[in-house]
Amino acid sequence: MAAQTDKEQRMTSRYRHVSVQVPATTANLGSGFDTMGLALNFHDELSFTAHDDPADHGVDVSIEGEGADTLPRDETHLVVSSFRKACRTLGLGRVGLSLHARNRIPQARGMGSSAEAIVAGITAAMAMVQGDPDRQAIFDMAATIEGHPDNVAPAVFGGLTTSWRLDLPEGQGSMTIPGSEPLSRGFHVARYAVDPAITVSVFVPDFELSTERAREALPDAVPYADAVFNLSRAALLPAALNPGLAGAGDDPNALLFAATQDRLHQPYRRGLMPESWRLIETLRSRGFAAAVSGAGPCVLVLHYGRAQDVIDHEAREQLDSGRWRVLHLPIDHRGVAIDVA
Questions:
Q1: Does 274 sit behind a cis peptide bond, omega within 30 degrees of 0 on the bond before it?
Q2: Residue spans of the chain under pLDDT 70
Q3: How many CB atoms lie within 10 A of CB 193?
Q4: 24, 40 in Cβ contact below 8 A?
Q5: Cα 252 to chain center, whole Å?
Q6: 193-329 to CATH, choices 3.30.70.890, 1.10.540.10, 3.40.50.720, 3.40.630.30
Q7: Strands 97-103, 198-205: pairing kind
Q8: What is the CATH number of domain 2-162+333-340?
Q9: How high is the pLDDT of residue 213?
């Protein structure tokens, strides 16, 4: 243990200042529970500066925007604690840190704020050592800290992602295919193209819902028919979000509507967010592909082509109440972005 401590004390950061930009994300997309995620062109921007004095291990945190009145400004801030964990893994030791966060992503609404914080902290630590860190390494560590990869994957890689965890290396207990490279144990991700004609609208309420409460509402088992139902819809999602490339013959918005149908999680959570559920029912009754964003209570609408004015009109009751706002957002295809100095 002492040898590890000495090693950490000898290690220093290569770069003193790192700027990180991380996109908001929306997970599940209706049918893709705990597997599918989409990055949105709506970002938090964070600046990390390592203290010059190696004996200064303190942290200074300043926040503007979302969470400025509620988020901690010490070691318990999720960005800072993720940065610290990454530093220990990298052997960087305890670096004194000044963090300035310009937050746009709403907190506890289902737009990936916790995944953003974890990705930002890990990316900054790796960038201080490597300059341009490997995205797979960021994803591996972030998914391990978060515990599930559905928001982390699009935050790191951008676009539409499917992510999963492999508990055993491929080939254990089965025949290894000659000439193939087996998958390793841990988290994995596949990324899909998204048609640029796809538009995203996110309705953001003035109330929150914790992921823990949303998890507690789920049953321990679901009917077999419901599992098959969701499997067919989740398999459709990549084609629905890129109908031209997939060569799908049906109307693109009909595909999106079907692909966002769900029986695994939303019906069990609707009692926790009745206002969100009413908005979803209103939009879906008009043919729009509406779903809970992540664990909620934000409401996601996917559409092929421009329909912002029509969508706003259908949600006029919620928007006129003053309790909701809407974000019409492009899809982020880049994922986490880094600048070092």
A1: no
A2: 1-13, 168-183, 245-249
A3: 14
A4: yes
A5: 25
A6: 3.30.70.890
A7: unpaired
A8: 3.30.230.10
A9: 92
